[in-house]
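Sample A.
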Amino acid sequence: MASAPQNMAGEALRVADLPGRGRALLAAREILDGEVILSEPPILLYPSSLASLPSYCSACFRSLPPPPHAPCPSCRAAAFCSSACASASHPRLVCAAFSSGLAAAPEAHQEPLLFLLSAYSLQESSLRALLSLSSAPQGPSPSQQQDAASLHAMVASLAPPHILPPGFSPDLTAALLSKDRTNSFSIMEPYRPDVPLELRKTRAYAVYHRASLLNHDCLPNACHFDYVDRPGPGNADIVVRALHGISEGKEVCISYFAANWRYADRQRRLLEDYGFQCECERCQIESKWKFDDDDDDDDDDNDGGDGDDTMEEEHDKEDVGDGVDEGMEQEEGSDDGDDDFPHAFFFVRYLCDREDCYGMLAPLPPLPNGDLSHVFECNACGQFKKEEDVDEPDAGDSSMGN
């Protein structure tokens, strides 16, 4: 039975169970263009790798200022951007694990180990909140179960037993890993025009309680921003803004990857990482197209489960082409191209046209008097564009479809 909807986030959003989609966030009222509809701190924040420790504060993950830094007095591996962050320290199990050989762990195991050590350092209430998040509907594969057992043994060898939480067990480790895979947001290194998209790295990962309920759509009506290098408290909070007006009762969705990925690439990623096949309006249209690339032809025959509560929105996973997918042709006998691609305007208006960016352009929040803003901000590179420049991209722009 579906649970009763709950009002939250200043009545902008409510939680509801949707058939085939699991828990979701719906607009509890009319939402305006650019409106901030969700802002919350992370349940869990942890480094992407040991290599990121010299560059970012181990408490808030701001870029570290020039030396000297305030090192952790216990492990000496972590550094902090301020005395406030130094006093907040970093996860106690991560700190303790450095003296037990964490730095010698294989690189492939570092990210999940940092997640587990950080998760097991949480207060009991935060650990319960993390475990309440949804997992991929298909469950762990045999190889993932084997990895979980191996990682559990590594945590047990690295962490002093007296500071491990009650209930520490292989089953709990496996349960935690299933939450990380489907609920983590990447906090990326700042955009730099001289760094190609595929070389941009993740500085940290964050898991949020309410934002985990945002489902995927290939034509999202919202996108998230992080302002991790801004001064002051709350720099790791996620901020979700509406791309355009959202009517009451409509589901609020983000895209889990760059919005201009090709149909077959989107379906492959969603099936492999999240366990479902997307049947959104855009996918229903593009599934009728044929691809010049034979490798893409049989990807849409995959069966997947229902989409649910998945989090990750990334820009660093695959090469992406034009906003209107490259290598695609309409099926023979199809209608006029404009009829078969009614969402082309979405890419013109909401996809950033800066080279190697592929972020989303969202209007700035409405003005205090309620007037809508006519300035757009990119959630990846941070550029600002006037509305007239967004609607009329440069003639030589290669990031938009023709």
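Sample B.
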Amino acid sequence: MGHIADLQAAHSSHVAGMVYGWGIQEQAGSTTHRWEMFRLSSTDWHQFLVFSAPGHPSILGKRKRAPWEDEAEVSRMERRHQLATMDLEAAAQRMTGQPDMRFRGVQDPAMQAIQRGESPVVAVMPTSGGKSMLFMVPAFTAPGGTTIIVVPLVVLRADMTRRCQELGISCVPWESRRPPNAASIILVTPESAVSPDFQTFLNRLRWTRRLDQIVINKCHVVLNDQRDFRPQMAQLGRLVQARI
């Protein structure tokens, strides 16, 4: 089967052995230091792919930060600073194309709390009261991160996807078979939000410093559901502390 797999990849087994990998013998010129560096590189990959927990102690001592970790942290801090210093009302006007738009009612204090980085933030607003602006404007203002929206209703997910796309915000529904890699907003059902696949995806977002916010939309629907998602939502809510 290995030979068949090599032929399927358009090369012979000889070429595969010479070009793509080493045999069981030790690589020529290897040193103890080189093998230690190989192990550090493998550890970085394992943690990036969530095969092991971030910060897990290595037998070589304290793990050095990889260059991509520093870059990801700088990007996260830039998004936080951009959100904290931006005139969000002016940003909402640019986003919607309505120069006379103003935050109204609960929108204003809720947006200020989000801008200050408070967590959790609870906003009780009527239907069509502008709740979605509370996560659309930050995603529009400080792109590069990911906002998770737990949406219990199918109709809401379709409408929210359409609205985000019209505003130029990348928004996709969660699919375990095709995890989104670079979306500003990801819509997920309560059932999927507590699944192992999605938890792994969340851990990856946290590890790469891309998780900005977790928003539970229509939380009264989740709390009143006969399947009782309250314990799972409480578990998910603990991750809100990772938001910017």
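B remarks: The CA atoms of residues 110 and 122 lie 8 Å apart. The longest helix spans residues 67-85.
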